[in-house]
Amino acid sequence: MLNKKNLTWANSIQIIDRTQDLNETDPLYAFALDELLCKQAHVSGTSFCHIWRHPNAFILGQRDSRLSGVTQAIQWLESQGSIPVVRNSGGAAVPLDLGTINLSLIFPKATSANIHFHQDFEKMYELIREALSFTGLSIDKGEIQGAFCPGDYDLSIAGRKFCGIAQRRQLHAYSIQAFVISNGSGAKRTQLVRSFYNHATLDTLLDDYPQVTDESTGSLEELAQLGPDADQIFIDAIKRTLTEAQTITATSLVNNDLKQSHIILPNPETIRAVADKLRKRYSIR
């Protein structure tokens, strides 16, 4: 049963589901759209949930981009078919594929409130916990040793991480971003990340990058026994949870899903232009 008290912040959030839109090959397209949605949130006061995925990207943190052997590591990733980019939010390296669902919660900032960033992270934790409540499993938070992109808001089931959360703040709006490993093998992803660090670190001190282990990470398919359709089950659960948190009105719901026709997204050319700016600003160096 939905705990609506926890999700009062979702009362008027608008859902943008791009999980079936795989035409844009640039992984930074989604991050650029988040940037523009932040600006739109400031102007309109609207909050958004942007859901997306990418078939073959490797997202570096800014610290990763400064590792001593990163150029060789980038070449190796490209030889493996991955598209490497540096993101503008916090965190370390994360591989993306069709079995990893990305969520961005985007909010305008309160005019004068000085909200601690942990309260923002709690919103994403609350959403994912409520969305997965049907499994009957405990969704725990806290850093998981050996996981890639480690942090205080690692989300885990039975001690294995399936989700990481980061944040991006603008002057008048902010986004909380999560990756959720839904399908496939957690160990295969840890092996990819560990291989990246093996190529990227050369003479780097061990403390300067995550020490990734295979037993640290799993997918919802593995940990919650959701089967091969775990990705769509999770996407539907997120959308259903947000929909149920809405104030129900005749104009806000159509067939038990949020009407999205009134959401005017930036045109693709504008989004691509912002993606190019992000690429130049957060380049491999």
Protein architecture, described:
With 285 residues, this protein is an alpha+beta fold. It has one domain (8-281): BirA Bifunctional Protein, domain 2 (2-Layer Sandwich). Helices cover 32% and strands 21% of the residues. It has 7 helices and 12 strands. The strands form 3 sheets. It has a 7-stranded mixed sheet with strand order 1-2-6-10-9-8-7. A 3-stranded mixed sheet has the order 4-3-5, covered by helices on one side. It has a two-stranded antiparallel sheet with strand order 11-12. Helix 3 packs across helix 6 (230-244).
Largest sheet: 7 strands, mixed
Q: Any guess at the CATH architecture? A: 2-Layer Sandwich
CATH topology-level fold name: BirA Bifunctional Protein, domain 2
Please state the CA-atom Rg, rounded to the nearest Å. 18 Å
What percentage of residues falls in helices of 4 or more residues?
25-40%
- Approximate shape: globular
Number of strands: 12
- Terminus-to-terminus distance: 48 Å
Strand content: 15-25%
**How would you classify the helix and strand content by structural class?**
alpha+beta
Which spans of ≥5 residues are poorly predicted at pLDDT below 50?
A: 248-256
Instruction: Supply the CATH class.
Output: Alpha Beta
> Mean pLDDT score, rounded?
89
